[in-house]
Amino acid sequence: MDPSRMIKPWKLHPQRVLVFVNATIVDPVQGELIEHANVRISEGKITHIVTNGASALTEGVADENVIDLNGKFLCPGLIDCHVHIAVVPGEADLRAYKDMSERISLLRQPRVLKSMLDRGFTSIRDCGGASLAIKEAVEEGVIPGPRLFIAGFALSQTGGHGDMRGPHDSQLCCGGTMSGISRIVDGPAECYKFARDELRQGADFIKIMGGGGVASPTDRIDHVQFSDEEIKAIVTVARNAGTYVTSHSYTPQAIQQAINLGVRGIEHGNLIDLETAKMMAEKDCFLTPTLIAHVMSKQMNFLPADGAAKNDEVLEKGLKAMKMAVDAGVTVCFGTDLLGPMHFAQSKEFSVRSSVLTPLQILRSATVNAARLVMQEDRLGQVREGFAADLLVLNENPLEDITILDRVEEHVLGVIKDGRVAVSRWDQLAVDICP
Ligand SMILES: [Zn+2]
Q1: Cα of 425 to ligand 1 centre, how many Å?
Q2: Per-residue pLDDT tens for 202-248?
Q3: How many whole angstroms from 121 Cα to the centroid of ligand 1?
Q4: Where does the record place the Amidohydrolase-related domain (predicted)?
Q5: Does the model's pTM come out above 0.90?
Q6: How far is CA 270 from the centre of its chain?
Q7: Number of independent structural domains in the chain
Q8: How far apart are CA 25 and CA 50, in angstroms?
Q9: Are residues 263 and 115 part of one domain?
Q10: Is 432 inside a domain boundary?
Q11: Do 302 and 369 belong together in one domain?
């Protein structure tokens, strides 16, 4: 017996060599279909793609590992760039946020991760709350889930979007105190220290609360948070470590402050104006709108009264803002930001966006654009030789109707992550990973 398997009996078995024949590849870069393609994957990678009918790819491959995709579509795995797997899974509303222990949350997170994989998300970017421990558990095969890119704790100022104390809570909180999914930091010195500490503890990027938010009790949406000096300190830390900062910002003022100081990503951005969108395009910044969160928060009465009023305001403007940003040339990514009981609606973001964007624009947001945001553009987001074998088998063309990705049970026949079939709804595709 392999001794490493004795120590870690959950270690995943090496990937089988799989060959898909007669596939129609969905290419989000060119916005085209590549027909009659044969695709060979092994050791987690796409090793060969041929379109000239050459049968050499199947040589030496067992029959059950040659899968005929005639009439089916092979699409890159999806990437959700704004999730919070740690925020009150299994609770009906946000009132549970202050009291939920990290242990309770952690035990429930595998369910959230598996459900995301089931929907076709092979990678996710957690914008606050997910730990290195859960990321490594997925990588090691302890639990199935999408590959994770994590922010660790988000950084917030006192009284900012990450500070969950109400106005009658007079308890002082000192530097770096954790509040929900955030750490409270004030002044450049604490910003340096705790940005560095997040990186030390495995953060792939740094998330800051650069403006007011919906779910926080004592700030307003139009507040600008953090001073220039504080943001500069955090940007310096991230840059020195070869990564980037992304900011929770809704208003033009908050967005402009952040991007002028070197912040690379903007989360939400619902209230952006044209001037600011143009600045973002010029600086090659990324915008990750999260519209479904606002739709569902309203439908499910998720927020307390003060949050609900703020939510209405940003929901109305968010769709128009996203369209304007895309038209201005901003790289827009797919995000959802669903909390608590709302994760089931993750794929509905595709339908919400389809009222203002084309299927290609939306598919790019969840594949190539997202891959660039997580700095994996050479590895993720495309069905291409040398790329990770993160693939979806679909029975309809998403470039024709993107909302098929929202009807998962009907249209997403298989989800392959790292060259292993993680989910199958089709008898021709055997599952490699036990749930
Ligand atoms: Zn968020």
Answers
A1: 31
A2: 999 999 999 887 777 777 878 889 999 999 999 999 999 999 999 99
A3: 17
A4: 73-421
A5: yes
A6: 18
A7: 2
A8: 11
A9: yes
A10: no
A11: yes
